[in-house]
Design brief:
single chain; mainly alpha; two-stranded antiparallel sheet; two-stranded antiparallel ribbon; globular
Length: 178
């Protein structure tokens, strides 16, 4: 029991504080990969996170759909039903636990940096948290944001585009039309 907790803690420490020499080498290797630039264009993903994410996910182009990438990370939903009884959905957790932990940290970075670098994932997070009926808890909303981030990263890599955040609200659109 203790060793399982310790190994999970050590994984998170390695994700947050990798060895400086190893980190420099990871970033220098990552800069040669075209996906590195796409990952770094997303607010909340810096060179360190992009290099670690590339190391954990590998070549994203090998997946046919974004849902396969979500399944690889283990954030796809598991449905359980027996007869007329339906149970609450949970994430599968069968995928890469290091990538899942890293994505949780990345989404946390996005939420913390919302004032400096707003993006649609943070907007989605607050939309889930402020739903009038059944607002989502923090971890549930973050996992949903992980799914959305992975889908966006997959789409950007496949299209070869960088991240672009276009904020538009109805008031600013109405003023520009007049």
């Amino acid at each position: 029991m203790f060793s399982a907790r310790y190994s999970k803690l050590s994984v998170n420490v390695v994700l947050l504080y990798p060895h400086p020499d190893l980190l420099k080498k990871m970033i220098s290797v990552g800069e040669q990969i075209p996906e590195f630039k796409v990952f770094c264009s997303v607010p909340g993903i810096g060179p360190q996170s992009a290099a670690q994410l590339l190391g954990e996910l590998g070549d994203i182009r090998r997946f046919d759909k974004a849902s396969q990438l979500n399944a690889y990370v283990g954030t796809d939903l598991k449905h359980y039903q027996s007869g007329q009884t339906q149970y609450q959905d949970h994430i599968n957790k069968r995928g890469n636990s290091h990538a899942r932990s890293l994505m949780y940290i990345i989404v946390g970075n996005m939420i913390r940096q919302q004032r400096i670098a707003p993006n649609h994932v943070v907007d989605f997070y607050y939309k889930l948290k402020k739903q009038p009926i059944h607002p989502k808890k923090d971890k549930v909303a973050r996992v949903a944001c992980i799914n959305k981030t992975l889908k966006c990263l997959y789409t950007m890599v496949m299209a070869g585009n960088d991240s672009r955040y276009l904020y538009s609200d109805s008031k600013s659109q109405n003023k520009s039309r007049k």
